[in-house]
């Protein structure tokens, strides 16, 4: 899926690459002093001010002899470099010069070069960058993010539960992991809530289980469990969504794509941990076999759930995954989902909502989110609202009795399926760019994955953890 993407944005090491001078506003005077007098005069005359994403080509006797790109005030952000592949001339090769943060530059370049191209050839190819030394981690992160973007961008008619599970199987094959896909009667018995959510679709639900042990990780190495909501399309079920709300529901497996990306980052880094990745792959459809409002369903943990709304299906998928993960005695559990519109109302599309009642886990994820420009924002697990999930005929309802605090309520529902003494974090994300920005083209997006990969490494291996 990626092999045709990343090489298209990188130049070979023997390429006759042109110099690309990266400069902050503060460094502009020194750059002008170093450049050839004619080039410096051209920059001054054109009003170049080194603003973020500002680009000027440098003329010379042979045509283009280089380029200058502004970084604004903060050169460490990948998004300072994300517009360059499409701003520089197609078919040109470049090498970094000046004030560039090489890992951020490579990551931003690759993410900015990305375009989903399965059904339409992009109007142009990106300019290519020579990979700078010390950027292998950034390149691996870019590969994982672009794989996840491809999954989210694929129309639901081409990516159903089977195809999503096969994507997990393909990832396992790439990194020497094992993968089991649970379906049919085994799914109904072991993951009853997942089975119920998917029973209205002719495309059968399944759970993909990836297991991996890092190099040097013994049987007692810490186990990380990642759980992803993989609703390949969400009609809302019998509580049908309005047409406008259904338009982007191919992205409702964005949590699964994010957890797949985190898993790939950790495996690519040869992290010495044990890894368990669980993806609940389903389609929430309307049919005579779809589950109904006021049904009572079973869950893996043994709790019964009254269905207050069939459009609150993601938490039903995750609750079985969380219960299974807890049975494996992990050191840490993280789940991710495009779970609630309420989180978007509170934080907008760019800030995933983080829920955790483990202070160290929350603090570490927040810290790395800021460090790597992949932020999340913590919302409270306010226990006073737990009673809003009470049901008269089951252990709990899947929605609240009040139309408020929707993201908090969803997180509190999931909390019922995680043991109190087990470190756990829940990420409620949007997984989509509504418009193209540098490094973030319109379409599917992998959010918080880089922050989570760095944070879990620190938490489980006690590396640089405050």
UniProtKB/TrEMBL annotation:
Instruction: Identify the Gene3D superfamilies for this entry.
Output: Leucine Aminopeptidase, subunit E, domain 1, Zn peptidases
- Every copy of the Cytosol aminopeptidase domain together lies at 309-316
Single GO molecular-function term?
Answer: metalloaminopeptidase activity
Q: Which Pfam families has this protein been placed in?
A: Peptidase_M17, Peptidase_M17_N_1
* Protein origin, superkingdom: Bacteria
Which Gene Ontology cellular-component terms appear in the entry? cytoplasm
Tell me the Gene Ontology biological-process terms attached to this UniProt entry: proteolysis
Which UniProt keyword terms apply here?
Answer: Aminopeptidase, Hydrolase, Manganese, Protease
Against SUPFAM superfamilies, the record matches this protein to: Zn-dependent exopeptidases
What InterPro entries does the record tag this protein with?
Leucine_aapep/pepB, Macro_dom-like, Peptidase_M17_C, Peptidase_M17_N_1
Similarity field? Belongs to the peptidase M17 family.
List, alphabetically, the PANTHER family matched: LEUCINE AMINOPEPTIDASE-RELATED, PEPTIDASE B
Name under which the protein is recorded: Leucyl aminopeptidase family protein
Organism whose genome encodes this protein: Falsiroseomonas algicola
